Amino acid sequence: MTDLMRYAAELEGAGKKGLPPVEKWNPEFCGEIDLVIKRDGTWVHEGTPIGRARLVRLFSTVLRREGDKFFLVTPVEKMEIEVEDAPFVAVLMRREGEGEEQSLVFTTNLGDEAAAGPDHRLVFRKDPETGECAPYIDVRAGLEARIARAVYYDLVALGETRDIDGEEMFGVRSGGVFFPFGPASDIYE
Fold first, then answer.
1. Does pLDDT of 156 surpass 70?
2. Which of 47, 91, 94, 163 sits between 20 and 30 A of 53, alpha carbons compared?
3. Model pTM?
4. What residues form DSSP beta bridges with 70?
5. pLDDT surpasses 90 at 10
6. What is the sign, positive or negative, of the torsion defined by CA atoms of 108, 111, 114, 115?
């Protein structure tokens, strides 16, 4: 953890913009650390929420997903952490453009932005606890954001029905892609 803290301090001190190239780093696995990203987006270290937003943001820039596991990585360390659902929560959405040119841009709780489209897919999965369908957007490199309930309602307000392979589907369009929520008959019941 000391190398990770040192690296975070270097990033913060250097005022670097953009994201580090974590996908290019191949450090040795150093084990697990007691760090959990809760379902609500809170980062918890050793049972205590991390109160420094800038530190959480810095750690999020060195987050990497490999299969179903999540790691914080630096050029010399790789430590596994726990993520309860998705590492980010989409807390804002704005619409840019109109009609077929419409783009829906989501902002996460940590300041990342992703415009839904071919590179940032919207998906809907059943929540294993509630059985309800929950929307997610790919933010970067396999890291997703669960779309917050209030943002989901905004998303539904922009929805439309389209015929897909003979079935009426309800969904939204963004970045030239139609993302179906599900059959329109399920939505309008």
1. yes
2. 94
3. 0.86
4. 65, 81
5. no
6. positive
